[in-house]
Design brief:
The chain is an alpha/beta fold and 290 residues long. It has helices at 2-15, 30-33, 44-49, 78-99, 130-145, 183-192; strands at residues 25-26, 66-70, 105-110, 149-152, 158-159, 168-170, 179-181, 200-202, 216-222, 228-235, 241-243, 250-258, 265-268, 275-277, 281-289. The strands form four sheets. It has a six-stranded antiparallel sheet with strand order 8-9-10-15-12-13. Strands 1-2-3-4 form a four-stranded parallel sheet. Pfam families: Glyco_hydr_30_2.
């Protein structure tokens, strides 16, 4: 694979094309930082992006510095999923220092709800409701906040199958077919519609939260130029959660809710208002730092 990359890189240089190559797309995230159960495919960060790696591609002008992997089979239990993603972040940060390549980063390149996930949720059979949507939101949260993923890809947009793999479903027929939107479509939109290219993730802390408590998951992002802020809150409980933000510089203006009742429904927020997070919901808050 490395030799193929080097050959293509030469051709791209000769043709003066801006195209970039991505060499590392691991089938599971642990293949990036360890040998896993497939030693011949493992330790990809060390192999490709460390100066002393046997198959280093750091000198190739058309090689993207984005390391990518699929999130399958590593989402449950959540505490294990978070720990595995922290290992990606650590391995990439180590490679950044060793190589001097500050633009090394991580992309989550493919995921749908697959397998039995340690009994948390099964990938078989469609689910148009919030159970799968909340699980999707949890995986996005882990990948963005613990692996520092700067891109996140869902498999797939349109599905005709009886599986938790579609954002929109269609009948598998040539005529008189119908389409069905899922709550996963809207929950993903709570992230993708608002967190735009160039935004950076900023720290959050739940003052009365317990360690490793997944009942309320909060992530926040900021546009450095405009000072716009996006907060995504996932309420995995069956009760309303009240959110009181402590940053007095932050002025929230809008709320977008996905739940059993709403699909990215917009609500205006009054200044200084305590924010109510509906049960089993994904909520996006937008505002600006003064």
């Amino acid at each position: 694979m490395v030799e193929l990359g080097r050959t293509i890189n030469k051709q791209l240089e000769a043709a003066h094309l801006p195209t970039k190559l991505s060499i590392a797309e691991a089938g599971e995230i642990d293949y990036l930082y360890s040998n896993g159960n497939k030693p011949e495919r493992g330790s990809q960060i060390q192999q490709f992006f460390m100066p002393d790696g046997a198959n280093s591609v750091l000198g190739l002008s058309h090689m993207s510095h984005s390391v990518s992997a699929h999130s399958y089979f590593t989402t449950a239990p959540m505490i294990k999923g978070m720990a595995e993603r922290e290992k990606i972040r650590t391995a990439i940060n180590t490679a950044k220092v060793a190589s001097g390549k500050k633009d090394l980063g991580y992309w989550m390149s493919e995921y749908c709800i697959l397998g039995d996930n340690h009994g948390e949720i099964n990938g078989n059979h469609r689910d148009l409701g919030m159970t799968s949507a909340l699980y999707l939101a949890k995986v996005v949260f882990m990948d963005l906040c613990y692996a520092d993923a700067s891109a996140w890809h869902w498999w797939l947009a349109l599905s005709a199958y009886d599986y938790k793999d579609g954002l929109i479903y269609v009948d598998k027929t040539y005529s008189t077919g119908k389409y069905y939107e899922s709550k996963m479509l809207w929950a993903l939109g709570n992230y993708s519609r608002f967190i735009r290219p160039g935004y950076i993730r900023i720290g959050t802390h739940i003052s009365n939260g317990e360690p490793n408590d997944s009942s309320l998951l909060i992530s926040a992002f900021k546009d450095q130029k405009s000072q716009k802020v996006v907060i995504v809150a996932v309420n995995n409980t069956h009760t309303v959660k009240k959110l009181q933000l402590q940053n007095r510089r932050l002025i929230l203006k809008d709320k977008y809710v996905t739940s059993d009742r709403f699909n990215l429904q917009h609500f205006n927020l009054a200044s200084g208002q305590e924010v109510a997070l509906q049960p089993a919901s994904v909520t996006t808050l937008t505002g600006i730092l003064r």
